[in-house]
Amino acid sequence: MKLVIDQMHQQLEVPTYPKRIISLVPSQTELLHYWGLGDRVVGLTKFCVHPKEWYKSKQRIGGTKTVDLEKVRALKPDLIIGNKEENTQSDIETLQKEYPVWMSDMQELEEVWEMMSALGELLNVEKESKTLINHLKEDFALLKTAPKKSLRTAYFIWQNPFMVAGSNTFIDALLRAAHFENVFAQEPRYPAVTIPQIQAKNPELILLSSEPYPFKEKHVQLFQEMCPNAKIEVVDGELFSWYGSRLLHTTNYIKKLHQKLGVEN
């Protein structure tokens, strides 16, 4: 066994080589697959849809916020991986009484690199972790040159009520990396906003995320009527909010979005 400290600054004792891992976080589940952990991952949530073969074959232990404790116990995990934002405090506190639970907490890209490095060491895949981190750092370095116009942007995650990504969110960090000026950056977390508040911000660009609310092209007209001068785009929410290996596809997606909006360098 070894002592480690997670991203919530909690100390926990974990096996030297964890063999029965449960992931409670979809983006980190995909990361574990990318690192080739295979049979070492025994459980995941119903929202861990990537990779498809794991979703079909591995035991699902409920949702990210509705963990089925009996299903967890039946799997006899020696390590559980959770996240402060995606999992409920009560579930995590209950699980911590019985199992080592390593918690991530990320609002910035640098904290994602820290998560990958710490999990790489914890799971004995340091080489794979360093390779991925270096690759991603190179990818995001290519976005450092600002496009010819930084659009004032509102990023919507929900409807009824309208909810947007504000400060202290990973989405806000990616918007900044993409040189989109978040018009709700002064608001904490994921505020509910009214139509007058949205109109008062006068965004030049409205991004409608495909998750958690499944915005589609049919919703564009509603926002166009609300903000007639704004450009409206439905975007892949996974590429703006998943902080695992899916980030390998994010920078190219952002470059194509810049081109579509006519703001590329």
Number of extended strands: 13
Share in β-strands: 15-25%
* Radius of gyration, CA atoms, in whole angstroms: 19 Å
What is the overall pLDDT average?
A: 96
The total number of structural domains is 2
Q: What is the CATH domain class of the largest domain? A: Alpha Beta
At the fourth level of CATH, the homologous superfamily of the largest domain is Nitrogenase molybdenum iron protein domain
SSE run:
EEEHEHEHEHEHHEEHEEHEHEHH
Shape: globular
Uncertain runs are: none
Short description:
With 265 residues, this protein is α/β, with parallel strands linked by helices.
Task: List key phrases describing it.
alpha/beta, Rossmann fold, 2 domains, six-stranded mixed sheet, globular
Task: Please explain how this structure is put together.
- With 265 residues, the protein is of the alpha/beta class.
- The protein folds into two domains: 2-139, 3-Layer(aba) Sandwich (Rossmann fold); 152-261, Nitrogenase molybdenum iron protein domain (Rossmann fold, 3-Layer(aba) Sandwich).
- 37% of the residues lie in helices and 19% in strands.
- It is built from eleven helices and 13 strands.
- The chain has helices at residues 26-34, 52-57, 69-75, 89-96, 109-122, 126-141, 170-177, 195-201, 220-226, 237-241, 250-261; strands at 2-5, 11-14, 21-23, 41-44, 59-60, 79-83, 101-104, 152-158, 162-164, 181-182, 192-193, 205-209, 231-235.
- Helix 9 (220-226) links the parallel strand 12 (205-209) and strand 13 (231-235).
- Helix 5 (109-122) runs antiparallel to helix 6 (126-141).
- The longest helix is centred in the middle third of the chain and has 16 residues, at 126-141.
- It is globular and about 60 Å long.
